[in-house]
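Question (not urgent): is this output format expected?
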Amino acid sequence: MPLKKQSLSIYKTNNIGLEVTREARNLNMADIMNSIANNYQFPTYVQVNPSGLTDIEDRLRFNKSHLVSTNNLWSLGRNWDLTHKISYTHNRLTSDNSSRTTYFLEDSTLVINESQHALTRQNYLSTEVNLTANTAVFYFKNRLQLDMRWNDIDMSTTGSYPNEQKAYTPYYKLSNDLEILKRNGRKAWVINSYNLFLATPPELTVQGKGDQIAQQNIDAKAFFTHTNSSYSMGLGAFSLSLKGGLSGVVRSLNTDLTGLPDSLGILSNDLTLQFLNIYLNTTLEFNKKGWRIKADAPLSSVSYRYKNIAESDITHFTRLQFSPQLYTEYKFTTRFTTSLTAQIAQRPVEEQHFYSGWILNNYRTLSQGILTKDRGNSKLLFLHFSYKNPLQVFFSNFYISRDWQYSPLISNRSFTEEYVLNSYLSYNNRSSDWRFAGNISKGIEALKGTVTLRGSYSLSEAKMIQDHTVTDYNQGMWSLSAQINSRIAPWFNLSYHLNYRQNSLTLKDTDTHSSNKMVSESLTCNFTPSKSIIIRLTGDHYYNKLDKNPSKNLFLADTEFIYTFRKGWETNLSVTNIFNQKTYSYTQYNGLTSFHREYKIRPRNVLASLLFRF
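Got this back:
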């Protein structure tokens, strides 16, 4: 007899650098599929965080973490289920890092050095209720979800601009997602309705030299709704789908910035904005004799109403959008497939940029939006090849893409003695990108495993205004990676990863060129001399080379010994960072800026564990 109720409760805690927060995040395939249409978010107004971590995040975490979670399932009769999940996580993190930020100007560079010590307290509460039914005739799902985060950060910075920052960044999200599907042979009718309420009232206090104190208070709220219905039917080799609906937003933004000179301009915002999007998407698809051709013709009308309460200014306007796409696929054989995608897209108006007062993002950076009725567009060509031979354990994928973008706005960055000012200006801004990527995977009998090779290359041509000068630049990135997995003997297996990445930045019409190279290697070996014993050895190597600077190498090693007793008991002894390395550094590029980071990493750790399985 099936259970009417099932429950699972978990408590986890650690201070050894492991991340438990991600285990509480609600993410499934429905979230991924709906993320484009329903992912309405605010910009990150307050950006006070330890400098972005890297692929060795667990080695950089000095933490005290707790996770509590409970999951419940109730059977409500035939085909109907009710599930409930609630989880809470708390992270207390400390970090120490230093950085060098270089801004590439037309005829010089601006360098900012800083060292940071940060204490971050993260709290995340999430609860979710799902009611589902799945029958031969219909499918029903309704999900009600609440996410609450309240984080605070204390950061002390020394260097070019010493200061103390205190940031409080709460975030509240309440959403309901309803889906109903009705089936009738090859015909299907679907209704989706998604409603979302967002609120974020962050606060930031910055104490600089002497008694100078800057205070930023923000209150942002939004209600987002999206309801649509679709109908599809098959006609021989053809299928036709119609999808129509509406989406809309009502949002407000109120900010107040004190402690900065009035010479910067307006230091507050008080505005409301609404938009309503009515759309219809027609999709015609053909499938026959290896061909699959799919044409999308989405058409929408979006009406905007913007009110600047501080200036008693009201703006109304409406925009039509048409973004056709054609997808063509042909299967030469059951193993070899190629496809081509062509798209012309009109971008929506950048309504998140609708604010005129400066917002303090952190101790040194301020941002300002712009009110514009114009919108951009993009063109894309995407060619893809795929070959697979399961009998020979051979798989490969390759693609090449070319896209062109037009925006009525251009990023504008200027500098004062103390601040970096980021804003937008009206400008016919065009950019383009080339991208190539591919991978090959082959099973090799001699290795009793597989070898995988991956490669990619991208080249971006763009421009921005920096220090009152329009600067054209090229940014390139190419990477190569290899992976070997092998079970050489029943008692021994290994996994080897190699990654090579090179970034470059070139300013047109100048002699400025900079690049960096990064190599990372990882080797893991597992020895099992008996069923009850596992010995694991792990080694990591990181190499970083910046133009005209000495190269840097970092070697890290771990070991682990596991012994399993007959009655479910297990003992574990591990040593991480055997060589007791102290710091890790890397360099990356973003537009006309390079960032060099150096982090303090966790020292040698010895951990003994005793586990019992039942």
